[in-house]
Amino acid sequence: MATLAAVRDIPVLIKSPAACSERRVNPSWTISQLKAKLEPITGIAPSLQTIALRQPHHLEMTAISAADEDRTKIGSWSLLAYAELHVASTDPSSATVIPPLSSVPKYEMPVETYSTLPDTVLAYKKTHQIGRFDPHAPELKERKVADLWKEIAEGKITLGARCILPPSTTRRGTVAYVGLIPEIPGVGPWVGVRLDEPAGKNDGSVRGKRYFECGAQHGVFVRPDRVDIGNWRELGLDEDDDDLDEI
Prior knowledge:
The chain is built from 4 helices and 12 strands; from the N terminus they run ββαβββαααβββββββ. It is an alpha+beta fold and 247 residues long.
């Protein structure tokens, strides 16, 4: 007879005031083990955690708790794939809540004003014929585009290939798009990656135009030299993650 220890890992969504991350858990873990693994993701100490389970396509929440959390296994709650584990703190002041960057007011100088200023990067480029002000710019542009396509071919960057985005070895995903993106400044092809975790910048679309399907913040577009193709498997919840601060 199969035991809980033999059950395979289950993908779940970890949600807290400071994090939203897709991870894998094993039903054989005890509640105490789960809380210990959730601490570096949520920033909430195990002793302060409360965990509520919401199964896919259900509205009701079920508390994951027991009198003896050192022995009670989380498999007792019949976890389904992509269930949500909502983690909160019994001491709200201890939880890390990061305000969205969009809420910070910013000043944007009009382009017309910037172009008239003498001591700017733009003025320096004009004076020294750098970049698009270089008379040889068209030739350099063609060479750059050719080099980018060469990197794609030599790097075996193809649709469906597994990859990482160096220097991290934990920011992993699948190549979902290879080609031009007129909505992004710059010439030549881009590589769209569907990340395993919500550590990206978009949902596979750019300025309203969709290039591939993925969840919110699971998509990112990078140049070919940022992509390393290989047999990169998905990470589990109990594996090291150097990029938790990007979640």
